[in-house]
Amino acid sequence: MFKPKRKAVVVGAGIAGLATALRLGRDGWDVTVVERSPARRSSGYMVNLIGRGYDAAERLGLLPALRPRALGLFTTVLTRADGRPKFTVPAALAEAALGPRTLTVFRGDLESALFAAARDHADIRFGVTVTSSGDADINLSDGTSVSADLLVGADGVHSSTRGPDHVVDLPYVVAAFGLPHPVPGVPDDSATTFIGAGRTAAVVALGPGRSSAFFTYRCADPAAELRKGPAEALTAAFGDLGGGVPDALRHIGPDTYFDAVSQVVMPRWSTGRTVLVGDAAWCVTLFAGHGAALAMAGADELGAALLAHDDVPSALAAWEASLRPEVLKRQALARRGMVQYAPPSDFHVRMNDLTIRAMTLPGIRTLVRRSVERANR
Predict the structure, then answer these.
(1) Whole-angstrom distance, CA of residue 217 vs CA of residue 173
(2) C-alpha distances in angstroms, 63 versus 58, 105, 189, 350?
(3) Quick check: 227 and 115 in contact, CB under 8 A?
(4) CA 281 to each of CA 46, 161, 228: distance values in angstroms, whole numbers, following the listed order
(5) What is the pTM of this model?
(6) Rounded to an integer, what distance in angstroms lies between the CA atom of residue 219 and that of residue 168?
(7) For the segment 214-257, what is each residue's pLDDT rounded down to a tens digit?
């Protein structure tokens, strides 16, 4: 007997939304993706696909497109405020920490690979959003409506699908953006990182179109910092630094990612036929280093759960039960990691330095690799 296709509306064309559309579309769903922005956005900060995120990228067939864009491993030089080096962390330590099944790419390259794959499996509409959702139809701002079996909110930490509730604001802001050229004062194929009381500045020089900057700092009123805009706020917070920082600050532009640091903590990620995926459901913050990986894993494993269960609510419940422990672990690690990215005092900076120096000692790489392997099981 003929069985009609199940239909899904996905809100958001970022990593979580496109990965969900790709997985569901490949599984035979009729998928419509709506994105409020008029066009795809590019952003120049790096993301790691590790653990379940790497597995998801592999299952979704994205690795052939991503491998040529992989940034690889690089040496990190810890610096003083004037840019002079303190000590070097070899790339081999990052290799031990991340393991072999890891891929580091720019977020924009991951989204491009996802879009190229998903557009053959979904109707992707830009400049469109959901205006209302009833028991039967989902009404869209382009005047159309879709009778859908599933509504997926994948529209980020500021999700309109979820609303403003369940956001836990932390007293930090973060910025990241691409750089058009290797930065003077930063050795090729390396990063220089300044970690001071309440702030971190990192500049990565991997070649033209492959270099980037990352900034984060503690502040009493993140909303006030955001109102200043990235150029004014970041210059005030980091303008006294040397090395590659002054050149990076001159390249703050319209594609700069600049936002408060927040987590999303919800008692459940779904109700009825509506489910939240990615940052809309569980934002772990950039401090966790697993945001993209969890978005990919969440989307892919959601598709698997929907295949394994006949009814949507049962599938959503099983999916959440499987994924939630990992999310809670990463959120807790991010809260502890804030001390590393924005140490509360000079004493904490010195303790961080001692810890990082110790990790570069012979034999430590093996211990690091084993501990990471246990954490990712």
Answers:
(1) 6
(2) 6, 11, 23, 40
(3) no
(4) 21, 10, 28
(5) 0.90
(6) 15
(7) 999 999 999 999 999 999 999 999 999 999 999 999 999 888 99
